[in-house]
Design goal:
The chain has 405 residues and is mainly α. The protein is built from 19 helices and no strands. The protein folds into two domains: 178 residues, MFS general substrate transporter like domains (Growth Hormone, Chain: A, Up-down Bundle), CATH 1.20.1250.20; 191 residues, Growth Hormone, Chain: A, CATH 1.20.1250.20. 82% of the residues lie in helices and 0% in strands. Helix 4 packs antiparallel against helix 17. The radius of gyration is 21 Å and the shape is globular.
Length: 405
Amino acid sequence: MSRSRSVLRERDLTLLAAASAISVLGDTAALIALTLRLHGEGSGGWLIAALLLAGSAPMVLLSPMAGAIADRVDSRAAIAASAVAQAACAFALSEVHGTVLTLVLVALLTASGTLVAPATGALVPHTVGPDRLVKANAVMQGAFVLGNLAGPAVGGALTGIWGTRAPLELDAVSFLAIAGGIFLVRTRRRPAPELVAATRGRSGLRLVLGDSLLRAVIGSMTALILVSASVNVAEVFLFKDAFHASDAVFGITSACWMAGMIVGSALTARMGSGTAALLASMSLAELAVAAGLVIAGASPILVVAAAGFVLGGVGNGALTVASRTLVVIRVPDEFRGRVFGVMTGAINAASVLAYAAGGALVSALGPRPTIVGCGIAGLAVGLLFTVTARRARYGARMTLDVCTS
């Protein structure tokens, strides 16, 4: 039996991956339902933007704090408590219709879930051995992408048949299922009291800034997310206005990036688990994202543009798996929740800024120059990372003594 198959037979990893897929599916289905609800109530673009902001801003603000909490408590308890709170918010959303109250509840739902990413990210390494960590992260990434692919279709279908209440109730039930199911995971990550006391007061941001390799990895990934997420605003104008694609074709092309992410995650799992191999994977991944954007924006042929999005997705998937694995390799276990919290907050901050920048760029330049320009910027990010990572690789690895001195 091959290692790539054996990692899928790890019971606890499979449970965590299933929980991730279910959670993302429920969240994206609920977002579709809420978007359709606001649109149906006559809300304009600014309120839709406010909905997206309410679903992301709390993650930016609270993730560093959530990471610190994740390093102090049992990961399973943290995930279960978050899921119960999210379920309550989702059930409340299914009952209310006022715009202001809807936005408040969405913000509370997002805030309730900030513990999940750092707690899960720190727990996953304990479910497999260090030699299979890349494969484990690839499985988790694949589950996340599958949930993102299925969620919009499920949300749209349920809304069309039963109205917007059904997807929100589904989201709430999914959280309750996760709250109960997480205790089927036998693997524990429960920091020892003496380590909690010894590391108290050390912020995740300070840990990242103090390690040259972590600065390069997380900084580069954040920069590339800022570049590539701006394209989310431009793609609808590219395919609908420039290519005159139908709604069905636009739906298919929109899924190309996600489909590429699954491929990229799988490819990274085969490229080695050492620091040098992972840094090389990140460099290639960033260049693939940049090349994909340039191809998509410059091509006069729809199929070629869609292929460019697939290539960009391949790079995105590989980048996520490689960067998360590098964090685990570089950071001692007692600090991983904090570092993953910083990483999650930075990525969400980049996404928020990217949506605003994307809207401004499309209005000023049009979709094609925006996408090509983002690709060129991504190329610069990738080349800069290749240079800085080579130097940072030989820096001192983070240790407990260094971090608490």
